[in-house]
Structure formats: structure tokens, C-alpha cells
Amino acid sequence: MRTKSVVTLVFLLGLAATVQASPLRICLDFFPNPNHVPLYVAVEALAGELDVEILVPGDPSDPVKLAAARAADVCLTPQMNYLIARSEGLPLIAVGALIGRGLGGLLALSGGSIASIADLAGKRIGYSLEPLEPLLWRTMLRCAGVSPDAVQLIPIGFNTVASLLAGSVDAIGAFRNFEPIEIDLLGRPGIFFAQEAYCVPETYELLFAVHPDLTIERPDAVRSLLRAVAHAVDATRADPEAAFAAFLRANPDLDDELDRRSFEASLPLYADGARHDDAELWDVLQAFLAEHGILGARQPMEALYRADWLPQPVEGET
After folding, report:
1. What span, in angstroms and rounded, lies between the C-alpha atoms of 41 and 25?
2. How do strand 104-109 and strand 171-175 relate by DSSP bridges?
3. From CA 137, how far away is CA 139, in angstroms rounded?
4. Helix count and strand count (H, E) for the chain
5. Burial group, residue 312, by CB count within 10 angstroms (0-12, 13-18, 19+)
6. pLDDT tens column, 146-205
7. Which residues of the chain does CATH 3.40.190.10 include?
């Protein structure tokens, strides 16, 4: 009996060492872009302490599925997508944030017939993803006094900018730190309407989410990651050039004007302290999505996120 116990203990210790030594696989929300700069800074800082592997999904709906299936250890995902995934029963828990506010809204070309969101009445709006985008854009329209029935919503896949510039649609769903810059560089400046200015609740644009089992198997790895990301956000703002250089070392093909300007626009948007624990924000957003039929029953906060692994602020800091 004693021999069997010793063998079992040795096996379990070996298994634990293997789990701890394996790379922490982090799945991005989509292709690498300036939203991720502090993450790449954090990965470099963790060299020698924690081996990290960055995964790029084939589709923006994949990250939550990969983390839930344990094909990735950590995923980046918008808070709204995360809440939908949780309502569908995917086993996930949010442990931190990379982008601390919403990025979305509607983008139209400036200098034409659209000077305010009310001018979208009778126009065409192109979108990529259902059912979320139609809900957001209809909410914005109602908030501006425009009947959603007065606007045509057209699914256009991910060719949003091309569709806008070609005149196939009059406005598109866009991120404030990317597509407005992209069309400006193409000589077609735009006008952007931020979703939170038109009755859409504020949101964490990018959360770190994991399978609950990971918090038991690799708690030190998760804590190390969040601590490194929090420090990386501060370092990125303190020395943007050094931070962007770290991003380019991993993604040399993104050394262009669009990504540099997008990075500059992203600097105030990164989540201070990797924090994602504003309970009121979670409650209001969950209520909004449930009210519009996107979610089923609302879930308790403790089932949605944990904040005990976030790095604690130094005494005297706000």
C-alpha cells in the first residue's frame, strides 16, 4: 500500500510539473493588431518565468470555444461575446481585461449627406456579425430618434471598409481606433458615432477568459500573466516607442502608418491594472443584452468573473 502511494505521489508531482512547464496558450480575439501591444510587451517581460504561446483564431467566434474546449488556456474576447458564450453554457470565467472600454460604433464618410446619426434615416448600414451588431445599431438609431425600420441593415461580411468606400452601404460598424484611421489614410475621412453616446451600455472591449479548471491547475501562471499585463499597460504608456517595437518584433509585417496611428489611438483605451471588475458595468450590460433577447437568464456576478487575481495597486495610487 505504501509503495502504491509513493508511486501515485510521484506520478502526480510529475503531472503537475508537466502542466506548469507547458506553454500558456493565449488565443487572440482576431488577427494581431495594436489592441494587443501591451500583451506582447508582457510576453517579452515574462521570458524566463513563463513560456507563452500566442494563437491566432481563424474566426472571431473561435476564441471562447477554444478556451472552453481547453484547446487554448486563455482567450481574448469582447465582453458582449463572452456573456453570450456563458449564456450558451460554455465553461469560462473572466479574469482580467486588456481593453477597458468599448471601441465600437458606426462610421460614415464625411463631407456627404451624413453629418449626424439622425441622417442615417433612409440609408444602408453594413454589418459583419449577427445577432449582436443589428441590436447595437438599432439601439443607437432609436436613441437618436430614428426608427430602425427607416434604415436598411445589410450583412457584408468583413469587407466593411471596401463596401463603404465603394458606396455599397452608407455606414458600417467600426472600431474607433482602426477603421476611421484606415479610411483617412486612403483620403476619405469619416465621421464616427461612438456606441456609448447613443444608449449602448459601456463595455470591456477585450477580456481575458479561461476555463475554470485552469484556475485550479495553473493559478500562478494566470496571476503572472495578469501582473505582467498590468505592468505592461503602464510601460506602454510610459514608453510607447519601446512598446510598439516589442509588438513589431513579433509582427514585423505590421510596421506601417495604419498600425502606428491605430496604436497611438489605443493608448488611452488599455485597461488600467488589467481591471475588469466594475460590478455595475457588468450588471447594466447583462441587463441590456437580456432585455433584448440576446441572453437567457441573467447569471450571478461570481459566475461571470473573478477579481482576486488582479494585481493590487500600490498604496497611495488611485
Report:
1. 16
2. antiparallel
3. 5
4. 13, 10
5. exposed
6. 999 999 999 999 889 999 999 999 999 999 999 999 999 999 999 999 999 999 999 999
7. 2-102+203-304, 104-198
pLDDT of 9: 34
pLDDT at residue 73 above 70? yes
Nearest to residue 228, comparing CAs of 45, 24, 28, 36? 45
The CATH number fitting domain 2-102+203-304, selected from 1.10.1740.10, 3.40.190.10, 3.40.30.10, 3.40.430.10: 3.40.190.10
**How far is it, in rounded angstroms, from Cα 41 to Cα 167?**
39
If one counts every other C-beta atom within 10 angstroms of the C-beta of residue 253, the result is 8
Q: Considering the entire predicted model, what is its pTM?
A: 0.91
Q: What is the DSSP letter of 305?
A: B
Q: Which fold has domain 104-198?
A: D-Maltodextrin-Binding Protein; domain 2 (3.40.190)
Contact criterion met (CB below 8 Å) for 74 and 287: no
**How large a percentage of the chain has pLDDT more than 90?**
87
Task: Give, in degrees to the nearest 5, the angle at Cα 249 between 26 and 28.
Answer: 20
For 223-230, what is the mean pLDDT?
A: 98
Contact 210, 301 (CB under 8 A): no
Angular region, 274: left φ>0, alpha ψ -120 to 50, beta rest: left
Give residue 21's pLDDT: 65
Q: How do beta strands 24-27 and 52-55 pair? A: parallel
Q: Is the peptide bond before 131 cis (omega within 30 degrees of 0)?
A: yes
